[in-house]
Give the backbone structure.
Amino acid sequence: MGSLTIASMIQPSSHPITMTEQLTLTTIAPAGFVFRQFAGDQDYGKMAELINAINRADGHEFLQSVEELMNQYSHLENCDLETDFIFAETTGGRTAAYARLWWEIDEEGLLRFPLVLNLHPEFRQLELGRAILAWAEGRARAIAATHSHTGPRVLQGWVGDMETESERVKLFESAGFAAVRYGYLMTRDLNEPIEDRALPAEVEVRPVQPEHYHAIWDAHVEAFRDHWGYRTPSETDYERWLNEPDRDHSLWQVAWAGDEVAGMVLTFIAHKENDEFGQKRGWTDPISVRRPWRKQGLAKALILRSLKLLKEHGMTEAMLGVDTQNPNGALQLYESCGFKPTKRGVTYRKNL
């Protein structure tokens, strides 16, 4: 894709470029490393291997596939891979890290720049991480400077497990980021009894057909409007969701009230991941209920149905993620269904 310069990362191409900005990414990379652009399809395997090495080191039993990455990267928005992606290698050619950012505006008028940052466990020196964060902040500031949005703007990162990812916590905090929101990854032992719970009156679960997909998507989007950080999803988001590799609508628990979707638990099983780690885990995630059907026990009934279905499929545990400050009491609901926190994550932000 050509030579990548500081100017191309920090300045829009229409702006004049100073001599200082002509420094190449090789110049700003810490000693022993070089930075380059995204190289296309040949990078997906390297990226998946990097993420899986990170997961193993941090005790995360998750498997990143090339197919998932390709689906994500074929549906990007507000992200130019020629300028908004950086790949770090050692001078010997080993994969050390990669990062990508994009921009989005939430319902509260915040212009945010989410940052994907993956550092190989062997190369978590603060110098490398700080250099990549400096690149990301420069790129975000350049986009913000020419953006029509005049409200607040932030660079945003996250840590999946504060206990096992202490180096990542240190990196963000040393660069001026502050923790703003916490979440749990929760697990439910399926060997424990599962309560029977009837659906509310006039609501029924029906088998999902492909022609239902968009109605299910639209109902889920509507239900999440009052959640922290919500932004309106696009049709590109919908297409990405449709192509997720582990999507199996035969497991979904979707409740209908007449012709309207009332709520759902989009249950799934990551079979390749389970095989890799020798586990029998299913996911009851995502979960949503539209406003007219809340406070009627619908979410709990759907979750319990999903737990029983996973057990019938031979699973021994269920997992989900939750915003601990969810305004609708989701954490308490999941605890009442037998879920217990196993990892505590955090979202970090830095004002720009």
